Amino acid sequence: MQNKKIQFIAVDLQHDFTAEGGSHYRRRPSVDFVKGILMPYLQEKNIRVSEIISDYRNEYNKRSNTTCVPGTWGYASEIPAKSRNKEVWIKCQNSPVWVTKNIGDAKKEPGKPFQNPKAFTQWLENNVGKPQDVGMVVLFGLTLDCCVFCTAQELRFRGYTVKILEEATDSYSGMKQEKQIIINNYPLLNWARGIKWKELQKILLQKILEVKIILESDIEK
User: What is the CATH number for 216?
Assistant: First the structure.
């Protein structure tokens, strides 16, 4: 992992999942952790986050779906705009490769869902980096048993090393015991491993020191 980047991807941290009144809201401790600990830390260290969100108007061709509808309060993200890394990827199903025509456009009706793995790969390379240049991708957000899980699969298929920040994710139910069962067992272990915040902080501090040493060396030259 030496001299390779650590990248963060947030998944579905939208009001319909994170805030009271949201159509899929549950009490999930990870949301408070992300808002109160993780994001302030990343902002302080000038570490940006790539973001995947959802437009579920036409999920599984169910046109009556009112979850995460563009232009509504439920669609809005918890990730501050100043902390985002370039463009946001918008999906229409659990897997990020599924999209629709007019996705994310509040003024237009979405088309029929289709897979666009090539565009998702391009988004990853533009915002996260190519697998050979990235030491670790840290996933966080909602939910561990659906969208975070599917995102981990897609990243691993493309050759990324994937870690899931344990304190920053939850299952749909929000139950701690369920989360631990999912994160510590197969099939998720086929695609990703959990990492605790304390361990991740040590790695990040080491990377910051490495960068500082390189910059100081360049200055001396």
Answer: 3.40.50.850
Is residue 1 in some structural domain? no
Write the CB contacts of 59 (distance below 8 Å, at least 6 apart in sequence).
Answer: 65, 67, 92, 93, 113
In a domain, 3, yes or no: no
> Which pLDDT belongs to residue 217?
43
Helices (H), the chain: 15-18, 29-33, 39-44, 117-127, 147-157, 176-183, 197-220
Give backbone dihedrals phi and psi of 96, rounded to 5 degrees, phi first: -70, -10
Band (pLDDT 50/70/90 cuts) for residue 23 is very high
Pick the closest to residue 143 from 4, 30, 22 (CA basis).
30
Based on the structure, what is the number of domains in the chain?
1
What is the enclosing helix (H) or strand (E) of 143?
Answer: none
Domain span at residue 61?
A: 9-220
d(CA 116, CA 114): 7
What are the tens digits of pLDDT across the range 87-121?
A: 999 999 999 999 999 999 999 999 999 999 999 99
Does residue 166 lie in a domain region?
Answer: yes
Provide the sign of the torsion angle of the four alpha carbons 198, 86, 83, 73, taken in this order. Answer: negative
Q: Which residues, in sequence order, are bridge partners of residue 141?
A: 11, 169
